[in-house]
Amino acid sequence: MTLSQAETFSGAAGRAAATPRRTTGWRRWRFALGLLLPVGLALVWEFAVRSGLAQGRLLPPPSRIAEALYGLARSGELAPHIAATLQRIAAGFALGVVAGTALGALSGASGLARTIVDPTLQGLRAIPSIAWVPLFILWLGIFEASKVTLIAVGVFFPVYLGTLGAVMAVDRKIIEVGQVFLFSGPTMVRRILLPAILPHYVTALRAGLGLGWMFVVAAEFMGASEGLGYLLLDGQQLGKPDQIVAAILVFAVLGKATDTLLLTLTRPLLKGYDLDA
C-alpha cells in the first residue's frame, strides 16, 4: 500500500468513526430541544401563578402538579393505575394490529376483497369512539373485554389503512423482477414486498398506537376502578385539578415512551430509513 492510499484509507476510517459520534450528539441536542417548549411553558405558568398574574385554582402550577404526582407515587396508588392502563393498551394494540394487518394486506393484494371489505370499513371508521361505548357495554359488560375491544377498534383503522396503502403502493415492476428471477412466494415476500412495505407499515403502527392511547381514556371511563382514565374521573369528581393534570402528563409520558419503544424495536428492520420522532 502506498502512502497516499494509506492516508486515504485512514481518512475514510476517521470519517466513518466520526459519523456515529455526530449522530449521537445530534440526538442528544434534539432531545434537549424537544424539552425546551414544555419546560419553558411550565416555568412561565409557575411564575404567573406565584406572581399573582394568574390563578392556579382551575389550572394548577407545575409545583402543585408535581406534589400531586409525588403523593400518588409515594402512596403506591399510581403504579397499579399505570399497570392497568398499560395492560389494556398492550392487549388492544395486539388485537388491532393483527386484524388491521390481515385485512389491510388482503384488501391491498386483492381488488375483489377490497371491493367487498373496504366500503364497510370506511363507514365504520367514521363512527366516533364514544358511540361504541354503550354498545360494547351491552355486548361485553363493563369489564376488561369491552375496554380492550374499544382500544383495538382505535388501533385497527390506522393499521388497516396504512397496510392497505403500503401494499397498493408497491411498484409492480419490482414484483416482475422477482418473477423474472423465479422467486418463490416466501422469497418474494422477504426480498421484494417487505422492504417496500415496512417503512409505511411502521408509520401505521405508530399512528395506531397513538389512537390506542386516545381510545384507552374512553375505555377507562366505562366503569373502570383502576387505570389512568379512572384517575381523571376521580380527580374531576373530587375537584382535584392537580390530579387531573398529573394523570394527563403521565398519559403523555407513557405515550411517548411506548412510541419510542416501538421505533427501537423496529429500527433493525428499517436500516436506511429515517423514521425517528
From TrEMBL:
It is found in: Cell membrane. The keyword Transport applies. It is a multi-pass membrane protein. InterPro entries: MetI-like (IPR000515), MetI-like_sf (IPR035906). Keywords: Cell membrane, Membrane, Transmembrane, Transmembrane helix, Transport. GO terms for cellular component: plasma membrane. It comes from the Bacteria. GO terms for biological process: alkanesulfonate transmembrane transport; cellular response to sulfur starvation. The chain crosses the membrane at residues 31-49, 89-112, 124-142, 148-168, 180-198, 210-232, 244-265. Residues 82-262 form the ABC transmembrane type-1 domain. Its main location: membrane. Probably part of an ABC transporter complex. Probably responsible for the translocation of the substrate across the membrane. Belongs to the binding-protein-dependent transport system permease family. This is ABC transporter permease protein. It comes from Azorhizobium caulinodans (strain ATCC 43989 / DSM 5975 / JCM 20966 / LMG 6465 / NBRC 14845 / NCIMB 13405 / ORS 571).
